[in-house]
């Protein structure tokens, strides 16, 4: 679908999204709406066991069913049998064993989706269940633990060593320790995995897919199909949210295999339960922290152990570990640091990218510690953070210099000065109380709490990854008017990137009519729509390509002075330029010390949460969230506010309700009935202060903005609940049974 932007405005304006009205009215075409005459429907048979040997697979009953066109197992994979983002450890279809509940075992193509599902259920698989490794601590540290993979259970161990923490500990006047846990959060996008694979005359396949990273998808798909990359062509279909879960493959190879086998287009759409089993989740974490400080609250040393459960396959666990380690002390100055971050294999559901990417888990722990330290030192939560705040010229745990504005102390002062919401008078409108109109309370056991938190997030890919984007910009005359066509492979996943690309083109070329072409693999890679990177790198690529077009246009005008632009383009145009844009280089973390200039850019967000808690029933109502965020340069104010609101909502969800319940490796709540996400009634009003302190290294001075609010909102809400209840609450999400007090403690 080609999208022509509606309002003709440039960088810095609240340009409305061209897809916005279509999505609100239900007219937008998502990947699940794809249709071709004569297409078949694909379905997947998945393992019911988290760990088992496969002794036999009988596809005969499925093949015998009317309407079934193909049934495939691992024996039918035409090329390589495994794939992965960077390490190919995940089977296309299980070969001799399964490592998690939901692992794909066989595929079916049929003329009706229900027929395909019934045929998949008719396949007979003989499993021999075995002991499942479900405890990440055991996987990390128990030498007798069974190995999930032949090379063991350790995916990555990343230490960080700065100074001498033992010597520093001897001189610390105040020491606080804590153990913290973060549950498994789901990205919970509303549009389930879906796509349409169409066999091509050249023996290749055209795949229309909802994804985050077209070229890396292609580079994983092609070897498994036994095809050269040029014969696997991907086009971005309508994406109903992503948040990291679409960075890994789901049904891409499966649909393509079925299409090539049957010679017919094949559509696959996951139901909600299958979606929970069919994509990666946020890594659950177990963390132990120790902070030492002077009596007046100055940090002396930090020790941390972070264990991340990567589940059955590698995915992006190594990079998540790197983020957790490098950002593990947060935005605070501390001379002596000892961090050990681990990522491990288990037989739990696979985990990978999710908004915040390792920094979320660490932030919850270090911010909980800062509150404990404040209490031990007799300081306010704001003061303890201000006294230790980084600024331009500080160094983070990896030794990397913060060489761009980082006004954390000023941000903390600003959020502390914001007025607090008025308390709810009792008796009150029930809609204002925890539990709402369910008549659970009339305010008898309701207490108010206020909490603060800060998050430090890296922007763009880190640790030496070749992070770039490609843009092709064409200036031509259409219907007698100058027109700009922008073409990139950057995935629009709901963040408003289509709008921003057009804004940049208008700003750089001064042309009102701009069309953003559909994203596909006929143009060079734009990388993933993750890591808050697309405005930075794809925005930079579009800007650079526009500058090249403008340079040629200026030369053309100099040769033909006085000729109107449309006439100039009709006679001597069009002008087309393709450019790649790379940010400044990064390097890997030292494997022993963790030191290195590993990050492209760092971003700060500060949250304040105000909550009302019914301590008798364990119910929480978030009354207000306030946020101060430095974004460098605002490209689109309205879209930016939406990103901060959305990130804050996901952080609120992690704090209070969102968790995939996994017991013995099995998912217990794969539905939106039992997996709870914040609704419009759960999301409170927000006060926002958006600062602009330009980063001289970035296009327009911008700073990636989508992820930072997800970090600090979770610990801010948790801190507010602690303030209301006086409870330690070392785990998120906080459950009602964690809060509800006994009658004796309430009196």
UniProtKB/TrEMBL annotation:
Residues 25-131 form the Aldehyde oxidase/xanthine dehydrogenase a/b hammerhead domain. Transmembrane segments: none annotated. PANTHER family: XANTHINE DEHYDROGENASE, XANTHINE DEHYDROGENASE SUBUNIT D-RELATED. SUPFAM superfamilies: CO dehydrogenase molybdoprotein N-domain-like, Molybdenum cofactor-binding domain. Gene3D superfamilies: Aldehyde oxidase/xanthine dehydrogenase, a/b hammerhead, Aldehyde oxidase/xanthine dehydrogenase, molybdopterin binding domain. This is Molybdopterin cofactor-binding domain-containing protein. It comes from Sphaerimonospora cavernae.
